[in-house]
Design a protein that fits this description.
Elements (H helix, E strand, L loop, with lengths): L1 E7 L3 H12 L4 E5 L7 H4 L8 H5 L7 H4 L2 H10 L12 E3 L2 E4 L5 H10 L7 E2 L16 E4 L3 E2 L1 H11 L4 E3 L6 E6 L2 E8 L6 E11 L5 H7 L7 E13 L6 E5 L2 E10 L5 E6 L1 H5 L5 H15 L8 E13 L11 E5 L2 E5 L6 H11 L26 H4 L2 E4 L6 E3 L2
Parallel strand pairs: 1-2, 1-11, 2-8, 4-13, 11-18
Antiparallel strand pairs: 3-7, 4-6, 5-6, 9-10, 10-11, 12-15, 12-16, 13-14, 14-15, 16-19, 17-18, 19-20
Bound molecules: flavin-adenine dinucleotide.
Length: 407
């Protein structure tokens, strides 16, 4: 089958790109080796950052120009505006984040945000305007127009629109026919169960498989040193918890970032990251949970953690390698032959990655409409479940309570 582009990996980066290329008339197929979004997207907190967090950390430099536009781009996509992926079925968990501090944050954050021209800057809340769970915070509290979405619903929304060209494949069956390193002539796939075979002949191959990009690059004869991983150890809490989305920022550090959702059984969930998830990399789950419970008690005075259960998960951020292994400033793209490798660095930057990629791999206007009919009988992937649906080891509060195994 002749194609303009084959995309490997159906996280936010691959699916957003699939949408952009399909709308521009390209003949494009996305190949998923596991579950859509498995890896970073499903594990992420879904905050549509506008750059303030990086301003506070003093690292919002070149990347400001792109990230500061992102909240508006996503807002338009979520509203179904033309010219962008239509995300009308994506669930927005919150229209804004809160930002709070144990001392005086708001003036500093506002000043920094204005200085680099952020389009989304914090709006100071009076004591009466604070949500109940932030009522006893001693420092300032602000509202920031950064939406928070459900990554599961985002992936589902995009997949449902392009089911006809998103295929599941077995990595063991994958073969690249190479003309030279980075020059893929054809891609061969076979399905052991059905005995089906597929030969795809694309002009371009795009790797947006997150941490899976390293292996795919190796198979295409390209260097794997181009990727870096930065580990995180995240915390989940469920039970009698108030809805909260936002960051407690102390100095230049995001001490905790909390986002909220509801499980399929109707329990309230907190997903907790920020500095605690960086510090937690060196900790065992029990120790991290105890540490986070202390941090939450310190940054959210008066919020009760009674009747809650806790769990952790480890996840690596996969990014294009930068010297020193620090956070890249922007999306990362590598071009070699007809293979392009991309890492968005942040979920919110997926539109930037897709735009830069689609400009780089512009194809001639196809002479005929893409017919995905020959793919109709091939397997489709499923969407990865949110982590709180699959984790079975939960620890009661306080952390010394026995571990509960939930089916
Ligand atoms: C804990 C955490 C919280 C985060 N929170 C935020 C946030 O609030 N806001 C924000 O903007 N960013 C956030 N990020 C960053 C963001 O999640 C990532 O930058 C983004 O999701 C990366 O998307 P991706 O599509 O490149 O990769 P992934 O989401 O990792 O997707 C890779 C896809 O490729 C598939 N795959 C893997 N190997 C192969 C293979 N060999 N062949 C084919 N397919 C393969 C996987 O199954 C998956 O579907 C967070 C990251 C983490 C880890």
């Amino acid at each position: 089958m002749k194609l303009d582009t084959v995309i490997f990996g159906g996280g936010v980066a691959g699916l957003w790109l699939l949408d952009v290329l399909s709308r521009r008339g390209q003949h494009v197929v996305l190949l998923e080796a596991h579950e859509l979004g498995s890896g970073q997207t499903i594990a992420s907190q879904g905050i549509l950052h506008g750059g303030l967090k990086y301003t506070l950390q003093g690292i919002l430099t070149r990347s400001a120009s792109q990230i500061r536009e992102m909240p508006n781009v996503w807002r338009k996509a979520l509203a179904g505006s033309p010219g962008l992926p239509s995300l009308k079925k994506t669930v927005v968990r919150s229209e804004f984040c809160h930002l709070w501090h144990t001392q005086s944050l708001v003036s500093r954050a506002g000043m920094l945000g204005a200085r680099v021209g952020l389009s989304v800057t914090p709006e100071k809340l009076s004591p009466q305007e604070r949500p109940e769970c932030l009522a006893n915070v001693p420092g300032g509290v602000a509202k920031l127009g950064e939406q928070v979405l459900s990554p599961f619903s985002l992936i589902t929304d995009l997949f449902e629109q392009y089911r006809d060209r998103v295929l599941k494949f077995d990595l063991n069956s994958l073969e690249f026919d190479l003309d030279s390193p980075g020059e893929v002539r054809s891609i061969r796939l076979s399905d052991e169960q059905s005995g089906g075979q597929l030969v795809l002949k694309p002009h371009h191959v795009v790797l947006t498989a997150g941490a899976g990009n390293a292996e795919l690059r190796a198979r295409a004869g390209l260097s794997t040193a181009a990727m870096q991983r930065r580990p995180l150890h995240m915390v989940l809490a469920r039970g009698d918890l108030p809805e909260l989305n936002g960051h407690c920022v102390d100095g230049s550090r995001t001490r905790v970032t909390i986002t909220s959702d509801v499980t399929s059984h109707g329990q309230h969930i907190w997903q907790i990251g920020g500095q605690v998830a960086e510090d937690g990399v060196a900790m065992e789950p029990h120790d991290l949970i105890a540490h986070v419970q202390k941090e939450v008690a310190a940054v959210l005075p008066g919020v009760s953690l009674d009747r809650t259960e806790w769990a952790t998960y480890r996840i690596d951020r996969a990014e294009g390698a930068v010297s020193g292994g620090t956070r890249p400033e922007n999306v990362q793209l590598l071009f070699a032959g007809n293979v392009t490798t991309g890492w968005p660095t942040k979920l919110v930057l997926a539109p930037v990655l897709a735009e830069e990629l689609s400009q780089a791999i512009r194809s001639q206007e196809p002479e005929f409409r893409f017919d995905p009919l020959p793919l109709a009988h091939w397997k489709r992937p499923v969407v990865a479940q949110p982590l709180w649906e699959t984790i079975t080891d939960w620890i009661g509060y306080p952390a010394s309570a026995p571990v509960r195994h939930v089916a």
